[in-house]
Amino acid sequence: MRVISGSRKGLPLKAVPGTNTRPTTDKVKESIFNMIGPYFDGGIAVDLFAGSGSLGIEAMSRGIDTCVFIEKDQKALQTIMENLKKCRLEESSELYKIDASRAIKAFEKRELSIDLLFVDPPYSKVLFYDLAKKIVETGCMNETGIIVCEHDKTVDLETDLGTFTLVRRETYGSTIISIYRKRMEEGN
Known about the structure:
This protein is an alpha/beta fold. The protein has helices spanning 26-36, 54-61, 74-86, 100-110, 130-138; strands at residues 44-47, 66-70, 93-96, 114-119, 141-152, 160-161, 164-172, 175-182. An eight-stranded mixed beta sheet has the order 3-2-1-4-5-8-7-6. It is globular and about 45 Å long. The relative contact order is 0.16.
């Protein structure tokens, strides 16, 4: 696993030890960023089930100003810290050991304006995809924001997450990437 492109291109990233996380492969990660970017002019990203931090780190390497990493597993947190340090991105990131649903309440309280949201929970936890809809409902997603959900092909996500609608869905083996953007009102 490595940073694919941008200012930290080529830097190797550690995976979380054990089998509790499922890292996004480099091929899938590259495809995600080709669909949503590939580069950004600032903004805030949230990596909701961060694992190794690979998606958030890639986003910062490609121009996102700040990434908020949410992860409750201690081994994963340690891995994210090591990866951020290796990439010299500690200063431009926030890392929280907190349950994702509690994190959303904190986002709302802070009035966070999210430009890029990654939702990649453990595949068995289908309920967690509803958290993306909750984030939209709190008003924390920027009008031009993008939501990226990574899920198993057996999981059929809704077409709409509040005012955000599915704009693209791609399959990579047993993994599906679903991308959502704010629905444009008729006449705009």
